[in-house]
Design brief:
The complex is a heterodimer of chains A (116) and B (114). Chain A is mainly beta. Helices cover 0% and strands 47% of the residues of chain A. Chain A contains no helices and eleven strands. In chain A, the strands form two sheets. In chain A, strands 2, 4, 5, 6, 9, 10 and 11 form a seven-stranded mixed sheet that branches. Chain A has a four-stranded antiparallel sheet with strand order 1-3-8-7, with no helix packed on it. The radius of gyration of chain A is 13 Å and the shape is globular. The relative contact order of chain A is 0.33. The model of chain A has no long low-confidence stretch (mean pLDDT 94). Chain B has 114 residues and is mostly beta strands. In chain B, strands 2, 5, 6, 10, 11 and 12 form a six-stranded mixed sheet that branches. In chain B, a hairpin with a 2-residue loop joins strand 7 and strand 8. Chain B is globular. The mean pLDDT of chain B is 95. Classes of the chains: A mainly beta (116), B mainly beta (114). Chains A and B meet through strand 4, strand 5 and strand 9 of A and strand 6 and strand 11 of B.
């Protein structure tokens, strides 16, 4: 079956603009995660959805970042008033179920965001 | 908070040889999972191997094996018979049993020489 897909693959924007990054998880996966990977670093957790609700958003760096998953499938990460420091690869992952038991997180190819 | 440290920014290995990537972690939890992920230039993060902390036996997946030392909080990855396709960035990661997020190290670039 299809894996996790993310669109766009690359996004270039100007400082101060608004961007939306989309994630399509594997069909039937109830848990969805967003991570941010800055150049030369490992991914850092941003937010975790169980179904439609954000079960853990402790990794969001500030209130310019927001994510939704209105129907429990596709998720959108929204960044307002982008800053050059937001430039990174944004990775999405999904798993069959969430916390409390082992379940593999399957990653998408990421969206590379460049803020000029 | 949990932390994961990979002290080797870059490693090289000759094709068909064996290489070991190091990882240490810090946690106050007694039960957790540890992972090694491979990230090629395509950016797709691929799970290589995982270890449950309650299992004493080291995990093995074909040419990949780990050396898990719980007391020392050490989790190294051994790649045997290295192949050109093994060249990638490798990340060590931690997840608590009751947690959800993965905590990653900074990664090790593995270069394979022919």
């Amino acid at each position: 079956g299809a894996g996790v897909s993310q669109t766009p693959s690359n996004k270039v924007t100007e400082k101060g603009k608004y961007v939306e990054l989309r994630c399509d998880p594997i069909s039937g996966h109830t848990a969805l995660y967003w991570y941010r990977q800055s150049l030369g670093q490992g991914p850092e957790f941003l937010i975790y959805f169980q179904g439609t609700g954000a079960a853990d958003d402790s990794g969001l760096p500030n209130d310019r970042f927001f994510a939704v998953r209105p129907e429990g499938s596709v998720s959108t990460l929204k960044i307002q008033r982008t800053e050059r420091g937001d430039s990174a690869v944004y990775l999405c992952a999904s798993s069959l179920i969430g916390a409390g038991s082992y379940n593999e997180q399957f990653f998408g190819p990421g969206t590379r965001l460049t803020v000029l | 908070a949990q932390t994961v440290t990979q002290s080797q920014p870059e490693m090289s290995v000759q094709e068909a040889e064996t290489v070991t990537l190091s990882c240490t972690y810090d946690t106050s939890e007694s039960d957790y999972y540890l992972f090694w992920y491979k990230q090629p230039p395509s950016r797709q993060m691929i799970l290589v191997i995982r270890q449950e902390a309650y299992k004493q036996q080291n995990a093995t997946e074909n040419r990949f094996s780990v050396n898990f030392q719980k007391a020392a909080k050490s989790f190294s990855l051994k790649i045997s018979d290295s192949q050109l396709g093994d060249a990638a960035m490798y990340f060590c990661a931690y997840r608590g049993v009751y947690g959800n997020k993965l905590v990653f190290g900074a990664g090790t670039i593995l270069r394979v020489k022919s």
